[in-house]
Amino acid sequence: MKKIQMVDLKGQYSDIKDEVNNSIQDVIETTTFINGPKVHEFQKNLETYLNVKHVIPCANGTDALQIAMMGLGLKPGDEVITADFTFAATVEVIALLQLTPVLVDVNPDDFNINIEALERAITSKTKAIVPVHLFGQCAHMEAIMKIAEKHNLFVIEDNAQAIGAHYTYKDGSKAKAGTIGHVGATSFFPSKNLGCYGDGGAIFTNDDALAHRIRGIVNHGMYERYHHDVVGVNSRLDSIQAAVLDIKLQRLDAYNAARKAAADKYDQAFKGIKNIEIPFRNGTEDSHVFHQYTLQVKHMDRDALVKHLNENDIPCGVYYPIPLHRQKAYLDERYKETDFKVTNQLVKEVISLPMHTELEDDQIEYITSTIINFING
Ligand SMILES: *Cc1c(COP(=O)(O)O)cnc(C)c1O
């Protein structure tokens, strides 16, 4: 059995090595390092893939979220509601822009923002909602868009973990994650479902005026060279990263299918095992792209399981061990522990298993049997 990796980027690279190397070499030979033709090509291909009017590439996923909020013209003091159970980047950019983050609890099944908690958190100062499509599955976008419309709020999708996932509306129609709200943001961090070989990110929108504002913001607020109309930032996707991404985008559906196949095998092995709750799927085949495969372990010592796995050379992760509302940087006296019952439970019960495009059957068998033997003690 090959050594088990949490994420196997090397194995994935070996399959596309020549293509990637040639494409990177091309960028170097033409010295079009910034905003070269590769960036434009990738942008166009991603627009087609997502079926969205505008993709604006940028330097990373955190920037993508920040720039989306800048583009919407959110002002200091505006309240922005997001999930308590997510990576800190989501709330970090809200705070950085001097907006007021308002954290709310999540669902116990799909770990995404809870609709009732979201509605309760709306005040006259609320201006935006940031649903995070956690671990690869969409938040309840139809309900969120309805609430947003009713209260005149912007919706910014944090799609860093769910690129390629589909959201299915009640009427059966589908849209790609990140293209449903007013604006979507994603990350191409190497371990994401579509990852480059460094940092990268992108913003998506179907709104022409917003896309125009954002294109200026990513480039120092310039719409015409050396005319700075708004305060912007410097956030660009390198041509070398775009070269890698354009090759991997062609394989994204296959990569996500490989993740799902691994998830199916995990599910199968854990069926009927007491103390283990397998990841919830909302029922449609293409809804979950398994950025993480996250179990909930009930009525047992999760950390003892983590230790046991590590002792048996099985890497695993706890995403996330501390809810955002208890992080020093984001403490707020308005929060009551009783408002975060689900997150407070999840941080004690979640464990994410190795998940990538190169997992092999014998590895999955070893991982699942090690866990099951530990539980059956
Ligand atoms: C990775 C991630 C980000 C940030 O992306 P970077 O490219 O690392 O800046 C934001 N939100 C979520 C949910 C993420 O998983």
UniProtKB/TrEMBL annotation:
Source organism (scientific name): Mariniflexile ostreae
GO molecular function: transaminase activity
Protein name: DegT/DnrJ/EryC1/StrS family aminotransferase
The entry's keywords: Aminotransferase, Pyridoxal phosphate, Transferase
Protein family: Belongs to the DegT/DnrJ/EryC1 family.
Keyword Transmembrane: no
The keyword Transcription appears for this protein: no
Gene3D superfamilies for the chain: Aspartate Aminotransferase, domain 1 (3.90.1150.10), Type I PLP-dependent aspartate aminotransferase-like (Major domain) (3.40.640.10)
InterPro entries: DegT/StrS_aminotransferase, PyrdxlP-dep_Trfase, PyrdxlP-dep_Trfase_major, PyrdxlP-dep_Trfase_small
